[in-house]
Each structure stands twice: as C-alpha cells, then as structure tokens.
Design brief:
Blueprint (H helix, E strand, L loop, with lengths): L10 E10 L3 H12 L4 E4 L8 H4 L3 E2 L16 H12 L3 E4 L6 E4 L2 H15 L2 E3 L3 E8 L2 E9 L2 E12 L5 H6 L3 E3 L13 E4 L3 H5 L3 H13 L10 E4 L6 E4 L6 E2 L2 E2 L3 H25 L7 E5 L9 E3 L7 H5 L7 E5 L3 E5 L3 E5 L7 E4 L11 E3 L8 H7 L2 H18 L11 H10 L13
Parallel strand pairs: 1-2, 1-9, 2-6, 9-22
Antiparallel strand pairs: 3-5, 4-5, 7-8, 8-9, 10-17, 11-13, 11-16, 12-13, 14-15, 18-21, 19-20
Helix pairs in contact: 1-4, 1-11, 3-4
Protein name: FAD-dependent oxidoreductase
GO molecular function: oxidoreductase activity
InterPro entries: FAD/NAD-bd_sf (IPR036188), HdrA-like (IPR039650)
Length: about 450
C-alpha cells in the first residue's frame, strides 16, 4: 500500500475531513468543518496550534482595508478568534508601518490556547508532532495519508482533505500540480522574528520610520551586518516589549529552497545569528533601546511562499489591483501586494482605497483532485496576487470556506465540486463571513 514499506502501518481510522496544518487557515478549516457536523482530524507538525500565527508573528493583518476609510472585510470564525484573545488579555489595534491597514496584535501564547479551545470545543480531534510523508491517491481521490509521528508511522483515511500546510505538502506528495516559488518569479525572502524587552516606548516613538531606516543604513556602513534596511518594530500588549520584522534571508539559492530540509536547516541557523546582529544594532543605535535586551526568537523562521497549488482558478495581479469581484467568492482582501526581495527590498502596490478583491472558491479547489481543497498561503494564485492575499486574516477566511465546503461535501463522498456554490455562500453568510465588498459598515 505504501510503496516499499514491508510492514503494516497502524491506522488512526478514517475521518470525514482531515486538515493538514493548523495555522490560521487550517485551524479555521477544522473549526468550520467540525461545527457543521463532520468528524475532523487536525494534524500539526509543531507542539502547538497556530503555525505562523503563534510560531512567528503576533499580529493579524487583513481584517480591514488600508487608508482613512477602513472597511472590515473579514468576519465569522476569525471574529471568534479575536474575541477569545480579548477574554484572555489585552489586544492592541495599531496601524501598519507601511500603511497596509490596521493590525490586531496579540500575545502568541494566548493565541495557542485560543486555537486549542476553539478547535476542541467544535469537536475536532487534534494530533500534534505529525508530518505527512505520503498520500494514497486513486483516480484523483485522496484515500489516505501516511504520517510520521512520535510513535512511528501511522495512516489515516479521509473522505475530504484540506491542505493548509502552507507548503502544499499534501498536494506535493499526492502528485498534484503546483508552482514552486522561484520557478517563474523570484521567491519572497525569509524572516526570523524576535522580541526585545525593557524598551522605552516614549523614546522609541520620538523617531519616525524614515529615521529608523536611516540609522540602519548608517550602521550598515559602519560594519553591522544588516541585509534589510527598511525593517519594522512594533508595540505589543506587554509594556516595554517590542516585536520586530527586520531580518532578511533568501528563500532559494542555487536551485535549493526552503522545502529542502538541508536548506531550511541552514536558513534557521542563519536567521537566528542575523537576529542577534539586529538586536545589537537596536541597543547600540536606536533611541529607546539603550537598556533593552533580546529575550525571544521566533519558534521557526517566517516563510512567505513556497509551493502554490494549481486550482480550478488562479487569482492574478490584475484581479487584485482591479479589486475584481467573482461570482463564487468566499473571502475578501484589501491588503496591498507586499513583495519582499533581497535585491529590490520590500515593494508595496495598493488597491484603490476602501476596496477589496474577492477570493473565488475555485482558487481553493485543487485542479487535479476530486476531494481536496487548499487554504492559506498555498492557495491558487500567481506570485503577485499571493503577495496580497497571504495575510493571516485572509488565510482564516479561506480556511473557514474550505472547512465548510469539505463538511458539506462529505455526504456526497467528498466530491467538492458537487456542492453548489449558493449552498456554500449561504452557509458562510449564516456563520458571519463577509463575502461582498462594502457589506460591513465603515469603522
């Protein structure tokens, strides 16, 4: 059954819906599917849920459109997540450094618990420390997944599958088509995040973004190893603690990329070393950081793009910048195209103020599969469109849509194309999702 394996692989049974990856997309997919009656298994490689939202970052972007006329474009399960965070402590709404809209900054440790509560209260099963190793496919239908776990290899059957792994691991092992980041356009760079404690916020506020970038340029001329010189820092719910998005590492070199375990290992190590250099720069050169110290590094390196699956539709740059509306859309995004590169820096291209592009359901349906969906940063889009819609609020919205469709498809054997879009739309609207630009009152 599993290639060259010469022994029987213990089974975890079969589930209606198996969701691979518990980031913003995967956790929301599991919650949605379970709330709609499916028997769900959520698989995660880390020891906690949340993926990038808990292991790398501390801010949800994409809930609102940028600009003076900020419009809320994401609702439903994502609102439940923020409500859960507010019940545990302070949540800070703050402007993005580059005008990308209001961010919702939280404590990642709280979010780990919020994800666990929402997923388990919905009735989904969770398996941590689990990696997909292979996929059994017959005639385009995923029948089972082979997992590597602490207890050894395990297999699990599925009626429908949501690939929310970020790296499209399920689609890769299943042999479904995808574009590898870097093949057609330069892949976005990687970032190791870190936090500094004992920062004087008043002194730090005395200098502008442009001043910080000038100090980075000057420090680089003086010998500091700072490959990115337009990074950002921001306040957190804890007084005196500041989080950063500053470091920059290439995600592909000489044909290798971050889906290669050896390359990823080198990047993780290099990212932590680079973070120490940025921390040294901050304490030496930036007002407010004189008595500060680095006290936390991201659990893993931040990855912006790897594999992007070929779906029934691919969202394009033109779709985004024209704020195109689709007849089968299941999410909205007003975030600008945010493209990070070593040579050209970070490039921003904005949608017309107050508008949002729709995310079509077809971009979540895997082109080569019968019963598989994607959600999160491996969804079907070109490089430029992906650089806008990969924001975590949009990943949550895509996850809710994918999980909902997966649950609705179970009675029909998991055939996701057999569920009429109006049924998906009405279910999402009933659950608080926002599907039409301007449907929510202006803040």
């Amino acid at each position: 059954m599993w290639g060259s394996l010469d022994r029987e692989v213990p089974s975890l049974g079969s589930y209606d819906v198996v969701v691979v990856g518990s980031g913003s997309a995967g956790s929301c997919a599991a919650i949605a599917a379970a709330r709609h009656g499916a028997r769900v298994l959520l698989l995660e490689k880390l020891p906690f849920l949340g993926g990038t939202s808990t292991a790398v970052l501390d801010t949800f972007y994409g809930f609102y459109t940028p600009g003076e006329r900020a419009v809320k474009v994401v609702g439903g399960i994502p609102d439940d997540v923020v409500d859960g965070l507010r019940r545990l402590g302070t949540v800070v709404e703050r402007p993005n450094t580059y005008g990308a809209g209001t961010g919702v900054t939280y404590l990642a440790e709280h979010l780990k618990v919020v994800w666990e509560r929402l997923v388990t209260e919905a009735g989904a099963d969770v398996l941590l420390h689990a990696f997909v190793q292979d996929v059994l496919v017959r005639d385009g239908r995923i029948e089972a997944l082979l997992l590597a776990t602490k207890g050894g290899l395990r297999q699990v059957g599925a009626t429908a599958v949501v690939d929310a792994s970020g790296d499209a691991d399920v689609c890769h092992f299943a042999g479904f088509g995808y574009e590898q980041a870097g093949d057609l356009a330069p892949a976005q760079t990687l970032t190791t995040t870190f936090r500094m404690g004992n920062v004087d916020p008043a002194a730090r506020r005395a200098i502008r973004k442009e001043d910080l970038h000038r100090l980075m340029e000057e420090a680089a001329l003086d010998g500091y190893a700072l490959p990115r010189r337009e990074g950002s820092d921001h306040i957190t719910p804890i007084p005196g603690v500041v989080a950063t998005v500053m470091t920059r590492l290439d995600s592909a070199v000489d044909g290798a990329n971050v889906t290669d375990p050896a390359f990823l290992t080198e990047a993780e190590i290099a990212g932590r070393r680079q973070a120490l250099e940025y921390a040294r720069f901050l304490t030496d050169r930036v007002p407010g950081y004189g008595e500060a110290a680095l006290f936390a590094l991201g659990t893993q390196i931040g990855v912006r793009e790897t594999r992007r699956v070929y779906g029934d539709y691919r969202v394009t740059r033109e779709d985004v910048l024209e704020a195109h509306q689709f007849d089968d859309q299941v999410a909205l995004c007003g975030a600008p195209i945010e493209d990070h590169h070593s040579g050209t820096g970070t490039n921003w291209v904005y949608l017309p103020e107050g508008t949002a592009v729709g995310v079509p359901l077809r971009a979540l349906v895997v082109r080569d599969a019968v019963n598989a969906l994607v959600a999160g940063r491996c969804f079907s889009a070109t490089h430029d469109a992906h650089a806008s819609i990969r924001s975590m609020a949009q990943c949550m919205a895509m996850g809710q849509a994918a999980g909902t469709l997966a649950a609705l498809a179970v009675p029909g054997g998991g055939d996701v194309r057999a569920v009429p879009y109006p049924r998906v739309r009405d279910t999402l609207l009933g659950d608080g999702a926002l599907l039409e630009a301007g449907a929510e009152a202006v803040r």
